[in-house]
Write a structure and sequence with these properties.
By secondary structure, this protein is an alpha/beta fold. It has one domain (29-324): TIM Barrel (Alpha-Beta Barrel). The chain is 34% helix and 15% strand. The protein has helices at 10-17, 46-49, 82-94, 110-124, 141-153, 169-176, 191-197, 212-224, 255-266, 306-310, 312-324, and strands at 34-39, 56-58, 64-66, 99-104, 128-133, 158-161, 183-187, 201-203, 228-230, 232-233, 237-238, 248-249, 271-274. It has a 9-stranded parallel β-sheet. Strands 2-3 form a two-stranded antiparallel sheet. The chain has a two-stranded antiparallel ribbon with strand order 11-12. Strand 5, helix 5 and strand 6 form a beta-alpha-beta unit. The longest helix has 15 residues, at 110-124. The N and C termini lie far apart (44 Å).
Length: 330
């Protein structure tokens, strides 16, 4: 997914929309220690799927160009491979994460077709599955509410709606009013909007624009409005090979990731969301990477090199999830 060009104006507008109290049915805002990670089941390769998807883009001369500045340790894999998905779920569980938020582009999409495989392997590792409802063609608040109702019947209870604030809040409020047994989060920094629209919480997703200094304001406003605050942390951002977005958020050998985690916890986050496990095109992934073809892997992160550096971000995530997890009651 791409950052919306209008997102930079949202912070100022959020202040004007803030309300002072939560409505009926709002979730309590106490730190849960929950950590969720955004996951993409959309990669294809010719050997397994008959063609490429998401690994390559057209370059300046029309030639196919690898769309990421990194290279996966697992190679240019297919998300339809049961072995790949199983190993990815093992990674996620091993890093102390408990929820996988799966990118979903509507009924009949490749991501929809691959969702059962993700759910099956996630369950084997004790992971919950949530749905990241993307702006699929024809998506409306009404269609989204119908999607949510269907998934709730299948046992999924957490939903994250990307680009939620592109329609009037009243439309969401009407559509979500009949939803029961689900938590629905809006990707927005407009807390007043999210409250009026009937969402249970807010998340930021975009780790290029919405960094640590945003989190304290967002969580403070969310808690006053009775909403859950789920800011998104990530290792960096660089989509220059895949899109025309010039923004770069350098990884700084792991310091960017640590800083965002620290700021999210200090802000009083109820949940922490991670952008991302494997959005390679935007350079936000923490999935293992290795040096190849001039691509650096994660060498230098926390002083690591070679094979030990490949899993550096997963190992660091494990340290942060342990820190965020509430202490057992005495």
């Amino acid at each position: 997914m791409s950052r919306r060009s209008s997102i930079l104006v949202a912070a100022g507008a959020a202040l004007a929309l803030l309300v002072g109290a939560g409505g009926p049915g709002r979730a309590a805002t106490a730190s849960t220690g929950e950590v969720a990670i955004f996951y993409y089941p959309w990669f294809s390769n010719p050997a397994r799927d008959g063609g490429w998807a998401h690994w390559y883009v057209a370059g300046a001369n029309g030639a196919q160009t690898l769309s990421t500045r990194f290279y996966p340790t697992r190679g240019l894999y297919s998300s339809s491979s049961a072995a790949i998905v199983a190993s990815q779920m093992r990674d996620i569980a091993g890093a102390g994460i408990r929820t996988v938020v799966v990118s979903w582009w509507g009924q009949g999409s490749p991501e929809d077709a691959r969702l059962p495989l993700v759910r099956e392997d996630a369950a084997k590792w004790g992971l919950r599955v949530a749905i990241h409802i993307e702006p699929y063609p024809g998506r409306t608040p009404e269609s989204t509410a119908a999607d949510i109702a269907r998934f709730v019947q299948e046992g999924i209870t957490d939903f994250y709606v990307y680009d939620a604030d592109t329609v009037p809040a009243a439309q969401w409020a009407a559509a979500l009013a009949g939803i029961d047994g689900a938590r629905v989060f809006a990707q927005t920094t407009l807390v007043g909007y999210a409250h009026q629209a009937g969402f249970a919480g807010v998340y930021t997703y975009d780790v290029g624009v919405w960094t640590g200094p945003t989190f304290a304001r967002l969580c403070s406003q969310a808690h006053r409005a009775g909403l859950l605050c789920a800011p998104s942390v990530g290792p960096g951002f660089d989509a220059r090979l895949a899109t025309s977005d010039p923004l770069v958020r350098p990884r700084l050998d792991g310091r960017t990731y640590d800083r965002m985690w620290r700021d999210a916890i200090r802000a009083g986050a109820d949940l922490v969301t991670i952008t991302s496990y494997n959005e390679w095109q935007e350079g936000t992934q923490i999935e293992p990477a290795r040096a190849r073809g001039g691509r650096p892997g994660y060498d230098g992160a926390w002083g690591m090199t070679g094979r030990t550096a490949q899993r550096a971000y997963l190992d660091d995530t494990d340290r942060w999830t342990a820190r965020f997890r509430p202490l057992p009651a005495q």
